[in-house]
Write a structure and sequence with these properties.
Largest sheet: 8 strands, mixed
Distance between the termini: 40 Å
Radius of gyration: 22 Å
Number of helices: 14
Shape: globular
Length: 341
């Protein structure tokens, strides 16, 4: 099933074979069956504001969802300011909650109808569609579960750094083998190596037998070119991908590689990312279009762009390498083409 989950053309071809209204069925499949953790957090904030809740009530929301701000054991969990920013405009929160509830019931009912139709025409396709439908939610939930794990293990990393006399953040740069060696009383990484890793961008190349960490800038670039190839696509002015939501837009590129970059996004900019996540909502709300390197029918960018009606192209592979901040581009999400102007 996994080989089909991210293959847009295969599912569309199968649906077209059996249904004239395949687009409605496709939409029903590609929507999450239940809310993401970030959606739960936003709705909790809306509920808090609608009830004119206390600071203590907001603190409880922060305590429950602060882990969503983590991307490594070195990041700080979200505070109330970041969580309120994720929730967006806090006007008419009762109406927003009701709309969210109605939309969720409507989406789930649409999938049940679509599943019943598919089961009559092709039971095997119905099973694949049910797996895809669940995976829409699960692929984001697995990232949130990882963030929760990082929040739980953060105290261990800080205590290890304290015991070793290291600066805060150094322990996060240990490989699995280096960490287990250290816990057994054997040092397989030097202090100088950790300083270099903490200071510089580095590559961790993982195989079944070992993890190779390269922090030296010259060795790193040589390795990247040898294994991955050139990291830039300076001569390329046009990329192609799959259409997730049709439409056209022009604007300046803003490359988002981390959730923290989403807070300085200007209205009307073109969001270019490796892939999007619910954390990117402050930028998505202001985006004229979305372009991603990765993604398929169940990716967050595809789902959210259709919900907001934002032109979106996914699966370009190289958009974040071709375009840089400030480039003016045209996004033609009817043909799946993005080009520099």
């Amino acid at each position: 099933i996994k080989s089909r989950l991210d293959h847009l053309e295969t599912l569309v071809k199968e649906l077209k074979k059996y249904f004239t209204d395949w687009q409605e069925i496709y939409e029903a499949i590609a929507r999450a069956p239940k809310p993401y953790q970030t959606q739960k957090m936003i709705e909790a904030v809306w509920h808090w504001r609608a009830r004119k809740g206390s600071k203590n009530a907001l603190d409880r929301i922060v305590k429950k969802y602060a882990f969503l701000g983590l991307y490594s054991v070195n990041h700080k969990p979200w505070g109330s300011a970041q969580i309120l920013l994720q929730a967006g405009n806090l006007k008419n929160c009762k109406e927003k909650l009701e709309r969210a509830r109605v939309e969720r019931r409507k989406n789930n009912a649409a999938f049940r109808r679509a599943y019943a139709l598919m089961e009559k025409k092709n039971p095997r396709l119905a099973k694949v569609a049910a797996a895809i439908h669940e995976y829409v939610w699960l692929r984001t939930e697995r990232i949130d579960a990882l963030k929760k794990a990082m929040a739980l293990v953060q105290p261990f990393y800080r205590r290890l750094e304290e015991e070793m006399g290291w600066r805060v953040g150094w322990a996060a740069h240990l490989s699995y083998r280096e960490m287990t060696d250290l816990l057994r009383g054997k040092k397989s990484v030097s202090r100088a190596d950790l300083v270099a890793r903490h200071k510089n961008f580095y590559v961790a190349y993982v195989t079944a037998r070992r993890t190779l960490v390269i922090a030296d800038p010259k060795k790193r670039e040589k390795f990247v070119h040898a294994v991955i190839g050139a990291r830039t696509q300076a001569r390329v002015s046009e990329v192609r991908g799959f259409v997730a939501c049709p439409g056209r837009a022009q604007g300046r590129v803003r490359v988002i590689l981390h959730a923290k970059d989403a807070y300085n996004f200007k209205k009307g900019d073109i969001l270019v990312a490796n892939m999007t996540h619910p954390d990117y909502m402050p930028a998505i709300r202001n985006a004229a279009a979305i372009v991603t390197d990765e993604g398929g029918i169940v990716c967050h960018a595809a789902v959210i762009s259709r919900e907001f009606g934002i032109p979106c192209i996914i699966g370009t592979k190289i958009a974040t390498k071709v375009f840089k901040d400030g480039d003016r581009v045209e996004v033609d999400a009817t043909r799946g083409v993005v080009r520099k102007l």
